[in-house]
Amino acid sequence: QAVDAFWQGGGVKGGSGTxxxxxxxxxxxxxxxVLNQAQSSTLILTTNITALRQWRDEIIDKSDIDxxxxxxxxxxxxxxxxxTITTYQILTYRKKKTxxxxxxxxxxxxxxxxxxYDEVHLLPAPVFRAVANLQSRRRLGLTATLVREDGKExxxxxxxxxxxxxxxxxELEKRGWIAxxxxxxxxxxxxxxxxxxxxAVAEPRDKHRLAATNPAKIPVVKSLVEKHxxxxxxxxxxxxxxxxxxxxxxxxxxxxxxxPQGKREELYEAFRTGEAPILVVxxxxxxxxxxxxxxxxxxxxxxxGSRQEEAQxxxxxxxxxxxxxxxxxYSVVTRDSSEQEFAxxxxxxxxxxxxxxxxxxxxx
Length: 364
Known about the structure:
Helix content is 38%, strand content 21%. It is an alpha/beta fold.
């Protein structure tokens, strides 16, 4: 239905627009369906190298396209093929802000028949127009949420094309196409009076970091992991020092921006096979990481109040599962702090999406 709504029989009304589907609902498959309709040279823009490789694997797995016709254009490899996959970072790289984009001319020279913008809501704001000006007859934006914290949602429609298809998360959940999710906010007190005092006298910009990295969260995470010891668990955070503490407390593998790409893929695969049932991850795992068996996410810190990040992190556990098709998304929040204020925005966003949202006080 999404492919047909976008393509519209190949007529003038079709071929440019945005498809909104929840994480795990099959946006990549929609992209492949459009690729099949277009039958033309295609550029696929992704969020990172992990997503790039996943797109390549999916095309090879689910089509009869010759792997030799699929090119990777990344920091490591510079291939231009009938189907070329790259990242936003490579496309928008420049040595200085005053200089031209190093790799942009290469893409502008080719007459692309189709451009697919994966996670289109992340299209970098400063280069919106540069990316949109790529020579292309057809452009497809894929996203789970059109929320942008800079308020430029409408720009996505004007530059890529209008929303052509949208299915509510809850509708797909009821039909079993994505997991049934519970959202739980776990409120934790400051570890002691010293930490509480440091928070009370801190500058506003420091308050968020102090609340987010509250040491009292570590025992809570350990308790939740023990509660879900038979599940596949992602522990997600923003601050590297805090993630290192969690990594040591749980003795579980960790993936951050410092982790080499080869090691990341090795650890993701260990998680998929069950060899490593717990994975500690930074925000590098917010987007386009296919971990279908993850059914518990524990968020210990983040850009709290960012609806976009919330949707993406929840999306890590929404992919359909065998057996009980259920997932739990925990957010561990410091009580009586700026985190709790941000949590109110998160609660509003998630309940507007139709999710059940529960608040628990740790230790009660």
